[in-house]
Amino acid sequence: MRKANRSTGSSFDSFLEEEGILDEVDAVAIKRMIAWQLKQEMSAQHITKKAMAVRLNTSRTQIDRLLDPENAAVHLTTLTRAARQVGLRLKVELEHEPEPVAA
């Protein structure tokens, strides 16, 4: 007798939710994108980490944390200030969960 494929019809999000890591994965994905965008803009404007630290009145270690794509524990205020220093604006929005796909 064949075992039922429990992943048939399920989404990756539902798998992550079943594993109890959906929120963590979402947070890291968002942080990765923000860190990447900040790095890109800093590079385009030739802003070093040291110069960014001076602009934000913080340490280079804090800038390393800010730009670390795996570190999702960064305050929105810090992200907002950093974005502003490179001429960007942090935009956060909520959206409805997608409807489940029928099998």
Structure, explained:
The structure is a single chain. The mean pLDDT is 86. The chain is elongated. The protein has a domain at 17-85: 434 Repressor (Amino-terminal Domain), CATH 1.10.260. α3 crosses α4. The protein starts with 11 loop residues before the first helix and ends in an 18-residue tail after the last helix. It has 103 residues and is an all-alpha fold. The protein contains five helices and no strands.
Write the layout of secondary structure elements.
Elements: H1 12-19, H2 22-44, H3 49-55, H4 60-67, H5 76-85
Mean pLDDT: 86
**Strand/helix succession:** HHHHH
DSSP strand (E) fraction?
under 5%
Contiguous uncertain segments of 5+ residues: none
Question: What does the largest sheet look like?
Answer: none
Distance between the termini: 22 Å
Tag the structure with descriptive keywords:
single chain, 103 residues, mainly alpha, 434 Repressor (Amino-terminal Domain), 54% helix, elongated
Give the gist of this structure.
The chain is an all-alpha fold.
